[in-house]
């Protein structure tokens, strides 16, 4: 088995990297250390590169469709990783999870319909809701000493008549679940998901389950596939997955939805007509990763655990005013900086100009995000150490 050197710092400037080549545009200066957008600074598994090189030997790259081998690889992986029995006919390909969410909302909602999200949460969810003419209903997560849970009672309240409009029209058409949750790092327990999913089933509300980080788990945690909780939940759920986060394939623009319900799937496919014929190299990379990428994945999980352990212990020892939420899944650390006493915009300026870090500002993730910063820890450990040292110097200078 190959051993990968994730400590190696690979130069990404000059590669049209959204993460590393847009610092002046995104952050107003070039000297920031990039730990924001969620891609890894690690080389992809060798079998992925090998499969892509083999395909490049053929000089034509025309319109394409998923191979039988790719469909089998997805079915096999669902069974192997989650003990989930799916059929290849349930799989629909998208350019990305956000692309899939747009398609879903366009297919199943109308302007004025309502969609529940649970902030602080991945901010493109809010953009997808607003840009398709639907309305956001917030069900903010509850935090107790940095441990986040879903507010089931408040979730249920969105489906009952309101004092201002006692005859409740069923306007809540969809719920976007982030599982594992970005940015707070929770890996939801089965009972937590089922509590809100059952409410959706009872109210004919679609469950749009973003499970793109399902294989990026830290020690002691297990992912629950929403659609496996009951047959009734499966019939109301569209599950979004990809290899993009797991195997660092984001630039290849390939993801997929799994839709058990035949009617939902037919309408979902119709909403995508003419939009995406498939990314040839993305599909080849995904098949190779799912079939041969596990040794790399086992090593990267171990490395990410080490990065988080270093990150949390360093902050606890040297910057006690900052509080790091426990990371259960993803590689995104969520840090509470409210004790620094800075407004959201002053904190943004402090992080960029004093700490010289390029991070995701917490306020972008919606209610509950003010005063937080999100760190991408999928980067070589020397860079994690440098980021911590920059932050420590800046905090001591306040």
Report on this structure.
By secondary structure, the chain is an alpha/beta fold. It folds into two domains: 23-45 and 294-396, Aspartate Aminotransferase, domain 1 (Alpha-Beta Complex); 60-292, 3-Layer(aba) Sandwich (Aspartate Aminotransferase, domain 2), CATH 3.40.640. The chain has helices at residues 23-27, 46-56, 68-82, 97-108, 124-131, 152-157, 190-202, 231-234, 262-271, 280-292, 294-318, 344-354, 381-396, and strands spanning 33-34, 91-94, 114-117, 135-138, 142-144, 147-149, 172-178, 206-210, 237-242, 255-259, 323-324, 332-336, 357-358, 360-361, 372-376. A seven-stranded mixed sheet has the order 2-10-9-8-7-3-4, with helices on both faces. Strands 11-12-15-14 form a four-stranded antiparallel sheet. Strand 3 (114-117), helix 5 (124-131) and strand 4 form a beta-alpha-beta unit.
Could you provide a short overview of the structure?
With 398 residues, the chain is an alpha/beta fold.
List its traits:
398 residues; alpha/beta; Aspartate Aminotransferase, domain 1; Aspartate Aminotransferase, domain 2; 2 domains; 7-stranded mixed β-sheet; 4-stranded antiparallel β-sheet; 37% helix
């Amino acid at each position: 088995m190959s051993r990968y050197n994730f400590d190696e710092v690979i130069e990404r400037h000059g590669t049209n990297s959204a993460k590393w080549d847009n610092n002046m545009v995104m952050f107003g200066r070039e000297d920031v250390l990039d730990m924001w957008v969620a891609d890894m600074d690690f080389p992809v598994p060798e079998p992925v590169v090998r499969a892509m090189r083999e395909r490049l030997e053929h000089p034509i790259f025309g319109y394409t469709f998923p191979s039988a081998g790719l469909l089998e690889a997805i079915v096999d992986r669902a069974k192997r990783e989650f003990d989930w029995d799916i059929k290849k006919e349930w799989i629909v390909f998208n350019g990305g999870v956000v692309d899939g969410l747009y398609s879903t909302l366009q297919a199943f909602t109308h302007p004025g319909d309502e969609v529940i999200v649970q902030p602080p949460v991945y901010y493109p969810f809010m953009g997808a809701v607003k840009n398709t003419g639907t309305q956001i209903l917030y069900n903010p997560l509850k935090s107790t000493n940095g441990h986040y849970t879903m507010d089931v009672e408040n979730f249920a309240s969105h489906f009952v008549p309101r004092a201002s409009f006692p005859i409740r029209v069923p306007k809540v058409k969809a719920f976007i679940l982030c599982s594992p949750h970005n940015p707070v790092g929770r890996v939801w327990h089965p009972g937590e998901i089922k509590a809100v999913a059952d409410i959706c089933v009872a109210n004919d509300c679609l469950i749009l389950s973003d499970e793109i980080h399902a294989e990026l788990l830290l020690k002691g945690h297990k992912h629950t596939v929403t659609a496996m909780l009951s047959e009734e939940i499966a019939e109301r759920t569209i599950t979004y997955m990809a290899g993009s986060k797991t195997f660092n394939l984001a630039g290849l623009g390939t993801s997929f939805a799994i839709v058990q319900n035949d009617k939902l799937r037919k309408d979902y496919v119709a909403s995508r007509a003419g939009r995406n014929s498939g990314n040839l190299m993305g599909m080849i990379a995904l098949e190779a990763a799912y079939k041969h990428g596990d040794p790399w994945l086992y090593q990267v999980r171990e490395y990410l655990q080490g990065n988080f352990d270093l990150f949390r212990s360093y902050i606890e020892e040297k910057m006690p005013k900052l509080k790091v939420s426990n990371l259960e899944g993803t590689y995104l650390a969520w840090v509470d900086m409210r004790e620094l006493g800075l407004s959201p915009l002053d904190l943004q300026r402090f992080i960029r100009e004093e700490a010289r870090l390029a991070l995701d500002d917490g306020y972008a993730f919606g209610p509950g995000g003010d005063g937080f910063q999100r760190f991408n820890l999928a980067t070589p450990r020397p860079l994690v150490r440098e980021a911590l040292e920059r932050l420590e110097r800046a905090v001591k200078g306040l």
